[in-house]
Each structure stands twice: as C-alpha cells, then as structure tokens.
Amino acid sequence: MTRSEAAAIDWNAEFEERASLMIGDLRSLVELESPSRDPEAIRPVALAVSKMLAASGASVDIVEEHANGPNIVAKFGKGERPVLILGHLDTVWKRGTLASMPWRIEDGRAYGPGVLDMKSGLVIVAEALNGLRRHDIAVPVTVVFNCDEEIGSESTRSLVAEQAQNARAALVFEPAITGGAAKTSRSGIAAYRIHVRGRASHAGVDPEKGVSAILEAARIVVELHAMNDLSSGLSVNAGIIEGGTRANVVAAEARMDVDVRFRTSDQAIRIVDAISGLAGARGGALVTVAGGIDRPPFEATPESLELFARAAAAARESGFELGRGHVGGVSDGNFTAALGIPTLDGLGPDGAGAHADHEHIVIADLSRRAAMLTRLLIDIGGDRQ
Ligand SMILES: [Zn+2]
Hints:
The protein is of the alpha+beta class. The protein has 2 domains: 3-186 and 298-384, Zn peptidases (Aminopeptidase), CATH 3.40.630.10; 188-295, Alpha-Beta Plaits. Helices cover 36% and strands 25% of the residues. The chain is built from 12 helices and 19 strands. It has helices spanning 3-8, 11-17, 19-30, 39-54, 97-100, 115-134, 157-164, 213-226, 265-276, 302-317, 333-338, 364-381; strands at residues 59-63, 71-76, 83-88, 104-106, 109-111, 141-146, 169-172, 182-186, 188-197, 201-202, 235-243, 249-250, 253-262, 280-282, 285-295, 324-327, 343-344, 351-352, 360-362. The strands form 5 sheets. It has a 6-stranded mixed sheet, sandwiched between helices. A 5-stranded antiparallel sheet has the order 11-13-9-15-14, with helices on one face. Strands 4-5-19-18 form a 4-stranded antiparallel sheet. The radius of gyration is 24 Å and the shape is elongated. It starts with a helix and ends with a helix. The model has no long low-confidence stretch (mean pLDDT 96). Bound molecules: zinc ion (ZN). The site of zinc ion (ZN) has 5 residues, from helix 6.
C-alpha cells in the first residue's frame, strides 16, 4: 500500500465504529487501579495493555528491572528510525479511590481515577496501532509505557533514554491542555535544599553571642523570591522552611526546600548560578546548597513545530482543530526533547481534572485522536512500507 492509499482510508468511520470497544477498554483499565510504587497493582494494567498492543502484531516486552513495577516496551513495524510513543501505567490515585470516584459516563464525558492521566492515552495508542495492522501498514513504532512517571520516572529515565535513541520523533500521550491543545513546550524543573548553620545562644541572656540561622534563612527567602520573573516563565518558590528549637534560643539551624521552574536552558543556567551563589559564609552563618536541575526544559524547536504542524493537519482530517500551548508541569517529553528528538506532548484526549476528583475525558476524542495518531504515523513514518 502506498502512503496516499493509506491516507485515503476512511479512518474516521473506522474508529467511530470502534468507539464503544475503546470505551470498554478504557473502563477496564480505569477499574484496575494502579498507584505509583504499587507493582502488584500496576502489573494487571501492564498485562491488559500488553494484550491490547499485542493485538496489533507488535512484539511486546514487559520489562521489570526496578522495584517500582513493570514497564512495557513494544515494537511495531520495522525500520531504523522508529517513532517513539510514550505513556505511563501509574496514576496518582491510591487503591480504593474507585469507591468514591467510580467509573461513570455523563454528558459525553467519562469519569474515573486515571481516566485522563493517562489511561485514555494508552487506549488511543493501542487502537491506532491496531488500525494500521488491519490495513497491513507497517510504520516503525516503539512504545514505552513506564510505571513511575507520576513520581518523576525515578526508575525509568534510562529506559526512556535508551529507547529514544534513533527515534525520529517522540509522541507523548499525556492529557491535552484543557480545551484540547497539544503541548509543544514544558518548563524544566530544579529542586534545592538550602541549609543554614548559625550559632545557638540564649536569646534573653546573651543574644549577641548567637547567629540566627532563621534570620539568615529569611534573608535568603527574600532573595530567592526576588529571582522570580513570572512573565518570562521563571518561578522560584521556597515551599518549606523549618528551623530553630525553642523561642528563647537563637536558632542554630534552618533549612528550606525550593522549587524552581524555567522555560529555556538559558534561564536554567542563570538560575542555577544564582542559587549556587547563595552558598558560603553569610552574616556569620554558613549556607550550603544541595540539589539542581531535575528535568531540563522542553523547548519548541523548528523540528518540533514541524511535527506539530503535521499533527494539526492529521487532526483536521480527523475532524478537529489541534491547538498548541506551553505548560509548567513536566513529563518524560522533557527528556526526549533534551535529547534533541522532535517531541510533541499532550496528544491524549481533551478533558479536565488531572489529579483532581472531577477527572474526566471528552469521549468523542477517543476515536478522533486514534484517527489523528494513525494519520500522523502514516505521514511521518509511512515512507518505509
Ligand atoms: Zn501523566
């Protein structure tokens, strides 16, 4: 089949016909609760998703090297430079959440824990590959669904990086921005713990002998917050501060935890310098700074914007307009983008309430986004048939 023959298939009708099957698959995944760091709960989801992927003829491996649980690596089609598709099996919801937040459908929306973030994305990916299989279209695709994205992919960063090698593009099926837009950039994140050591003394008897770690920590907080440049996407927040022992003791110790977000690598370099520069002797106290960049920023590039343009064209043919935007939250897309791979994120369905109890998706998006992904894969990978 040529690429134009593949593009001429009435994908919209085909996936609309499969809408109720997709809803059934989604329900079965939502009803398998899979909190992060709960391998026994994640395993049944990994098995169910493996079956969905295997139906497309993909060779599916369950990789379980880490305590956080099983991960899926599936290879579809053949070719040197596959399209990498990323997703995660875990959710932020603890076991038992279904009792208070059961699966339900209302006004064209499906509700339930993890329905948006991101079990619907998993169903869309499996469905699109199954669609290609029905027509014997062999686009090279590597799928990685990890088990711990919601806790910073703490055990699966190298798995993602390894599978990303030679990828021609990365498509991330995290939820869309509410309203349906894809994510063409994400902030990066850094985390710090700043520790201040002063000198204790009796606050009433000989206060002049003490050096207040709390006073110095307070000065540091003011300096940190002055680094904020919200309009350019740089935010700095001392979110936790603690120190001291008693009201009548000049505090010998204080510490704080700081969250930093930035949009560009230039901002990252500057803010890392500025925060590292707080370390050393200050006002008689000794300041140490630990931490650094946790995820690099995912910045739009000419290549990623071209990828977006192709996705937007595929969306239009699939019956909807795909916008794009920036978000502050991070995903595994930050890693692939930092590796120089054109990355497009937020391709999962429209909806709202990720990590909140009104979490839901727009059901109509299941079919049309499966159609979009199928078209996009044919477009960017289909020259190897
Ligand atoms: Zn997610």
